[in-house]
Structure formats: C-alpha cells, structure tokens
C-alpha cells in the first residue's frame, strides 16, 4: 500500500530570506524617496538662483553670437578692405629694386586719406588683418634699417603658419644681428629653426644660428647646428655645402 507523504510548510530559513529581501527592497525605495524629496526641496529652495544662472548663461551665449555676427565679422571685413591699399605699396616695395624706402613709407603711413599699416594696427589690431599688418610693418621697418621698430612689430605678430611664423622669428634675429646683439640673434634664429620644423625655413635658420654661434665662439653648438642640417635636411640648398661649415666648426675648436 502506498504511503502518502504530507507536504511540509516552507522552512524558517526561506521565510527569513524573504523577509530580509523585502526589508532591503523597502529600504532602497525609502532611500530613493528620501533622495528625491531632498532634491526637490533643494531645487525648490534654489529655484530663483538657478533660473537667474540660466538666464545669465543664455544671455552670454546670445551676446557672444551677436558680437561675432554684428561686430567682429563686419570689423574683420572692414580691416581687410583697409589693408588692401597699404598692401599694394608693400608688395611693390618687395618686388622692386628702386625707391623701396618711399614705397615702404607709403605702406606704413598711407596716402590720399587711406590707412597705412600703422593706422590699421591702431584701429584694427585685434583682427586678422591687423595682425598681418604687424608682420608687414615689421618687415617694412627692417628693410628701412629701423631695427628697433622692426623687432617691436614682429614680436607683436602671432601666427600658427609654419612658414610665416618661422620667417617672423628669423627676421627678429636679423634685426638683432644688425644692431650687434648676437646673443639675441642666436636665440631667435634657433626659435625660427624650431618653429614647426619644415624643409624651407628650418635649414635657413639653422645655418644662420650656426654661423652666429661660430662668431660667439660657441663651436660645439655651431657644429651641432650644422650637423643637424646634414642629417635631417640633406636635400635643402643649405645642405649642399654644409660639410665646409661642419669642418670649420671642428677646426675652430
């Protein structure tokens, strides 16, 4: 005869786990409720400062966009138009062998009621055209042998362009060399050579830096600078006779 087995009640251990699970879940929900309540209270308490802050941020964004559209962009266009006149004289001076100084003077000071480079710097110095005017003014002064003004204006010029940036620094070096300040000239020649290394300006200013180092009797540095041209810029014009300079530095030691 088959024996019937009674199904027993759940164990105390299982019941205890269910109670603990329910208790933990309740605690989590209670914590979330408390956190949400505190957040609501904080927002309610600080709603006015938050709203004010949002208004300020929105106002700043609109002011920035408005400044760019209605002030900065028109001023950039205006400055570029003004620069076109003085740039004409500057370009003529760069491409002629006669009356250079008079052309550079016209470029710097303007004529016939038109702005020159100096006027553009004064009135549009923060624009792209104003920045370019600083470079052109520096070169103009350098060509006219006004080396201190050349250094000043070229030092105020800034660019990320690897060629123009290198030339600006190198021309500052040339200006210092002309006023017999070889230490400063060497410093700027090295800066020019190291400004976004490229196959055009870098070997030019490595060579100038090396020759200036020779004049300063810094023979080890000169040899190092010349050797860099040979090792890294072997296809440049400067590299074609660089062995002569390397040997000159070695013998000088």
Question: Can you characterise this structure?
Answer:
Helix 1 (12-94) crosses helix 4 (128-143), helix 5 packs antiparallel against helix 6 (162-178) and helix 6 runs antiparallel to helix 7. Residues 1-22 have low confidence and may be disordered. The protein starts with 11 loop residues before the first helix and ends with a helix. The protein folds into two domains: 49-158, no CATH class; 159-253, Serine Threonine Protein Phosphatase 5, Tetratricopeptide repeat. By secondary structure, the chain is mostly helical. The longest helix is centred in the first third of the chain and has 83 residues, at 12-94. Helix content is 78%, strand content 0%. The chain is flat, with a radius of gyration of 36 Å. It has ten helices and no strands.
List keywords for this structure.
253 residues, Serine Threonine Protein Phosphatase 5, Tetratricopeptide repeat, 78% helix, 0% strand
SSE string: HHHHHHHHHH
How many β-strand runs?
0
Task: Give start-end ranges of low-pLDDT stretches.
Answer: 1-22
| Shape, per Cα inertia axes | flat
- Largest sheet composition: none
How many individual domains? 2
What's the tally of helices?
10
Q: Mind telling me the C-alpha Rg? A: 36 Å
Query: Mean pLDDT across all residues, rounded?
Result: 83
């Amino acid at each position: 005869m088959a024996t019937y087995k009674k199904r027993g009640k759940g164990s105390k251990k299982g019941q205890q786990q269910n109670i603990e699970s329910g208790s933990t879940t309740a605690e989590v929900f209670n914590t979330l409720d408390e956190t949400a309540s505190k957040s609501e209270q904080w927002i309610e308490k600080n709603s006015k400062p938050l709203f004010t802050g949002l208004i300020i941020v929105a106002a700043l964004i609109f002011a920035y966009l408005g400044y760019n559209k209605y002030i900065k962009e028109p001023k950039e266009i205006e400055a570029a138009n003004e620069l076109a006149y003085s740039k004409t004289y500057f370009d003529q001076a760069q491409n002629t062998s006669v009356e250079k100084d008079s052309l550079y003077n016209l470029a710097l000071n303007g004529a016939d009621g038109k702005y020159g480079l100096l006027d553009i710097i004064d009135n549009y110095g923060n624009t792209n055209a104003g920045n370019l005017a600083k470079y052109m003014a520096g070169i103009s002064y350098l060509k006219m042998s006004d080396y201190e003004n050349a250094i000043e204006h070229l030092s105020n010029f800034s660019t990320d362009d690897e060629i123009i940036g290198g030339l600006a620094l190198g021309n500052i070096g040339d200006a210092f060399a002309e006023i017999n300040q070889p230490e400063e000239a060497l410093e700027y020649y090295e800066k020019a050579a190291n400004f976004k290394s490229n196959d055009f300006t870098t070997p030019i200013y490595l060579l100038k830096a090396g020759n200036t180092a020779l004049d300063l009797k810094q023979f080890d540095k000169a040899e190092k600078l010349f050797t860099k041209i040979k090792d890294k810029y072997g296809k440049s014009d400067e590299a074609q006779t660089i062995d002569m300079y390397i040997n000159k530095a070695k013998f000088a030691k």
